[in-house]
Specification:
CATH topology of the largest domain: Jelly Rolls
Distance between the termini: 29 Å
Largest sheet: 9 strands, mixed
Order of helices and strands: HHEEEEEHHEEEEEEEEEEEEEEHHEE
Number of strands: 21
Length: 354
């Protein structure tokens, strides 16, 4: 674990104590520790599906260190100038051996079966740490993709060195991007009746949220739709701008450590999140206006349910204190998230989570 990961974990332990106190494990103590690495037998390539056999079984409160792979082929990476020796062996092996894939393109590590998780519960995903797995990322676009396909009807890819010691990406001479690594895709299985769904659009199972706020020290709350939840993670991003307009961020391989907690006391319709400083609600819809309305309505519901405001007061407070941001515009379903600061709740409720 690098210095930044350690510092972020310390911040989490100090500021997010309220999350830990409301879990099935009142002290927030972590159970067993597991490690899950990507291989042809431990990934789901391009899909979320309730019928996917789990590759690991854990109990509520256990922690799993999950290694994920960059979402690109070795051939494309090498074509963009990456030295062949820099391509991860696991990526080569997966591209060589795995034929059960699609309709999406993300290589997701898992799924992890969490004992006791049932439809109607919520899986609390505590993101304990995130570290870089490789010293490079890429950004690229292709014909027919991104937010401006009519302006860029061709393909480009750029390999971008990552400086882990300074936590910056050297985009080009004179341009450095601060790194805030997060997983573009964290989710659970969708309802069984949905069958196999693409890894590209986010939905009620979370999945490809591309929410850059989900860094180490934050917590994601995802409604459970299948027994065992079937948790997966992938699509590592070293950094991203809200919107992800050309369809990629700083795409890379990451190692994340997650504590997975089954919440029987929560019943959510859509994913929500919590940072050390903010509560976050999300809207996900193919129409950007509808996604925005969903994020606002979810915020109102949170303020009514958890902060005991009237609906009128909640609507007013959302307008006065919550910030709306476009999460992403390019994955079929568009994403919008609303963030309200904990600091405004002055009567000992700042740390009360969802």
């Amino acid at each position: 674990m690098n210095r930044r990961s350690i510092l972020l974990l310390c911040v989490f332990m100090i500021t997010a104590g309220g999350i830990a106190r409301t879990s099935d494990s009142p002290s927030g103590a972590i159970g067993k520790e597991y490690t899950l690495k990507p291989s042809p037998k431990t990934i789901a390539w391009g899909y979320y599906d309730a019928s996917t056999p789990p590759v690991l079984r854990v109990k509520s409160g256990d922690a799993v260190e999950v290694q994920t792979l960059i979402t690109s082929s070795p051939a494309r990476l090498e074509g963009a100038g990456l030295e062949p020796a820099m391509v991860e062996p696991a990526l080569r092996e997966i591209f060589k051996e795995v034929t059960n894939k699609g309709p999406g393109g993300h290589i997701l590590t898992g799924p992890v079966y969490v004992e006791g998780a049932e439809p109607g519960d919520v899986l609390e995903v505590r993101i304990l740490s995130i570290k870089l797995a490789i010293p490079y990322a890429y950004n690229g676009f292709r014909p027919g993709s991104g937010f401006l396909p009519e302006d860029f009807p061709y393909a480009r890819m750029k390999i971008i060195p990552l400086d882990e010691q300074r936590m910056v990406a050297r985009f080009t001479e004179g341009i450095e991007i601060p790194l805030r690594p997060f997983f573009g895709s964290i989710g659970v299985a969708p309802p069984e009746v949905s069958g196999r769904i693409s890894s590209a659009p986010p939905w009620i199972h979370a999945g490809n949220l591309d929410n850059k706020e989900l860094v180490a020290g934050t917590t994601l709350f995802v409604p459970v739709h299948a027994r065992g939840a079937l948790f997966l993670a992938g699509d590592g991003h070293a950094a991203q701008g809200n919107g992800e307009v050309d369809i990629t961020a700083l795409e890379t391989s990451l190692v994340g450590r997650f504590q997975l907690v089954v919440r029987k006391d929560l019943h959510l319709r859509w994913p929500r999140a919590e940072t050390p400083t903010h509560f976050i609600t999300m809207g996900i819809h193919e129409d950007l206006n509808e996604a925005t309305k969903m994020a606002v309505r979810e915020m109102i519901d949170f303020l009514v349910t958890e902060k005991h405001l009237t609906r009128d007061e909640a609507y007013m407070l959302a307008s006065a204190a919550a910030d709306l941001s476009i999460t992403q515009l390019v994955d079929g379903n568009k994403g919008v998230h609303a963030m309200i600061p904990k600091a405004i709740f002055t009567r000992g409720e700042k740390q009360k989570p969802f």
